[in-house]
Amino acid sequence: MARRIVIPHPRGGVIDATAPLPPHMLQSWNLLGLEADRFDPIENAPEE
Questions:
Q1: Cα–Cα distance between 9 and 11 in angstroms, integer?
Q2: Do 7 and 14 contact (CB within 8 A), yes or no?
Q3: 8: which residues sit within 8 A by CB, 6+ positions away?
Q4: Measured over all CA atoms, what is the biggest interatomic distance in the chain, rounded to whole angstroms?
Q5: Is the pTM here over 0.70, yes or no?
Q6: What string of DSSP letters covers 1-48?
Q7: 29 near 21, Cβ under 8 Å?
Q8: What is the residue extent of each domain of the chain?
Q9: Phi, psi (degrees; rounded to nearest 5) at 33
Q10: What is the pLDDT of residues 1-48, one digit of tens each?
Q11: CA 47 to CA 24: how far, in whole Å?
């Protein structure tokens, strides 16, 4: 299960779609003391 997908568009460029974390994942992050609003691994991921 992915939270982000980046695919080439047939007419050029890319389609980049990102979904918010689902409630059960936010609950897990909170349980571990992580703050989803403070750090977003998608935003900080290196470009490939």
A1: 5
A2: yes
A3: 14, 15
A4: 44
A5: no
A6: --SEEEEE-TTSSEEEEEPPPPHHHHHHHHHTT--TTT--TTTTSPP-
A7: yes
A8: 19-48
A9: 80, 15
A10: 567 889 999 999 999 998 888 899 889 988 998 887 776 666 666 666
A11: 28
